[in-house]
Amino acid sequence: MTPTLAQRHLPPPGAATSRATDAHVRARDWAEIQERMLVPLYEAVYERLEVGAGTRLLGIGCGSGLALLMASSRGATVTGVESVRPERLRLARERLLPEGGWDDRAGEARLVEGGPDAAEDVVHPPYNLITAFQPIGCVAGDSEGLAPVLEEAAPLAERGTPVVLAGWGPPERCTTSSVLRVATRLADPLRSTGSWRPSERDDLEDVAQRAGLKPDGSGRVACPFGYADVDSAVRGLLSTGLFDAAVGATDPAQVRKELTEALHPHIRRDGTVWMANVFRYLVARTG
């Protein structure tokens, strides 16, 4: 029987379930494989800003919550908001809320799906640290929506509160850049709307300026990417979202194949994969 016009535009049976399953798998890969690569960045920032018992931290784009967990272990009171990847937020709740509870508040941690407005807290003192640790400066257009979010978050904090932005370092200092170029090549003709691009020197400062924040220092941190094997490396890199445009323009199997080939120069004799990278952070302050 010939399908109707409406039927031709319906997704194939099981497509929604497949997408949901894929999103869950990638969120788990992020939490179990990739997110730990940024631990040196989190530690450097927390050391510099002396995060501790007096810290009330608002984490924007908190993802699966590792940075919040590290701040909480230092005695900080943490709130995380996540509006883009709810699958990661579910994992953050497993990490930070007792027995994987789903309440917005439990103990010293609060996790909310949404933007900064969802984190407004009229009961407790204002936040005195805001972090946006999801690195920018690597995907075309990845910083455009961040400035309005920071503007929305600023009124929730004390005057002069440090706001931390993170980004990829110069391509010549990031070995992973050669692998990420696969995303750009495969994403054509979608290259301008979500695939990898070389980071620029003032990416973080530009966002801070648009958000009305005052830069107050910056730093660079070595964040090597190390994986147990090539399969782990592929899964970890795909979980970042940097290859989403490439997958949309081709297919997952093609992206995995070419990503695997690009990783060959970084395989060690014992089968592990190692890529040296430098990430940059900017400390800005609310007015």
TrEMBL record:
<protein>
    <recommendedName>
        <fullName>SAM-dependent methyltransferase</fullName>
    </recommendedName>
</protein>
<dbReference type="InterPro" id="IPR029063">
    <property type="entry name" value="SAM-dependent_MTases_sf"/>
</dbReference>
<feature type="region of interest" description="Disordered">
    <location>
        <begin position="1"/>
        <end position="22"/>
    </location>
</feature>
